[in-house]
Amino acid sequence: LVAIPAIMLSIVGLLFALHPWVAYVFLAASLVYYAQLRSMAFFVTMALGTVALVAAVHALGTRVLPISAAVFVVAWIFQFIGHKIEGRKPSFFEDIQYLWVGPLFVLSRIFQRLGLRW
Fold first, then answer.
1. Which of 10, 17, 30, 74 could disulfide-pair with 65, CB 3.0 to 4.6 Å?
2. Are 55 and 36 in contact (CB under 8 A)?
3. Domain positions in the chain
């Protein structure tokens, strides 16, 4: 449950390193996609998470590229280790859309553990 959010954070950081607006467009498209899939409470949670993510990326300043690249590589290593332990191949090999859905899966697990309906 840690690698998926780290991968998304690093992708946003890498896009931000290209140009901030590239990251903003990606995040806006993600929020539109997420809004179509879940309830308003879920969307609001994702929107607040997005604001926190943008703040974190801005706080990295000029270190955003090397830190994002390192997080990206390490998170993928942990993702593949986790799938090896589970004995399953990553679902994104079947459909790239699963990379976008991954953060929703993590958030839904958190909501379930907190006893929140979404």
1. 17
2. no
3. 3-114
